[in-house]
Amino acid sequence: MVDSVWLEGRISVTAAIRGRNRPVDALYVQKGRWDRGIRGLLQTAEKAGVPVEIVDATFIAEHAEGQSHGGVLAQVGPRRLSSLDGLLSGVSNPLVVMLDGIEDPFNFGQAVRALYAAGASGLVVRPRNWTSAAAVVARASAGASELVPMAVVETALEAAAFFRERGLLVACTAKESALSLYEADLTRPLFLLIGGERRGITRSFLDQADMRLNIPYGRSFHYSLGAAASAAVIAFEILRQRGL
Predict the structure, then answer these.
(1) Mean pLDDT by 10 residues, the chain (244 residues)
(2) Residue numbers of the domain that contains 51
C-alpha cells in the first residue's frame, strides 16, 4: 500500500479534510492564490489542525499530475476503510453499492460522484489498489470519494451474502430476465452491484441475485450504458422512489 499520495485541487483537498477518512499531513498553496475558495480552504485546514505551507509555482508543478490543481495540493496518508457492518451503522434504509470491474479511475470517480449525490450510504470495492490514482478519482468524483464510507471485500458474492443476511435485497443490472428499473420496488434496503464495461457481472452473481434490473432505452440501441451512467440512472431512480 502507498503510504503517502498527493491530492490536487481545492474541492478534493477540502473533501479529504472534512471527510476525515484519511490523514492529511500537509496542505500546500501556491503563493498569490487568495480567492474566496482558497481562504475558505485555509480556514477549514486551520480548524482541522492541518499544517499549511505557501509554496511557489515550481513546487506545485513538480508534484501535480495535471493542470487542474488551481494552486492547491495536499499530501495525504492511506484511505481509512470501514467494515461491511460499518456501512449499515446508523442507516435506517441503506443503499450499499458495489462497483466491480471498473478499470478506468476517471469512470470510477464519476460513478462514485453520482452515487454519493443520490444518497448512497456506503460503497464496496474489491481489493484493487486505487491509492496510486487517488488524485484522479477525487477530482472525477468532485471529492465524493473522500466523503463516502468505503469497505473492501474479496468478491461480490461474499458481499451479497453478507448484506442479504442483514435484510438487504441483492440487486444488479442484467439484459435477460430483468425487470424495468421503473417498475421495480426500490424502496427496500438494497445492496446493488454495478459491473464494469468490459467484464460485466458474472453468471454466478446473476443466478443468485434477488432482483435483476434493466434500464429502458428511448430507442433501439444494442449497447450497454457505461458504469458511471448506469450508476447515476439507477441511484437517482432509487432516490425518487424513496421520496428524496
Answers:
(1) 82 97 96 87 96 95 86 94 96 96 92 97 85 86 96 95 97 90 96 83 90 94 89 97 88
(2) 5-76
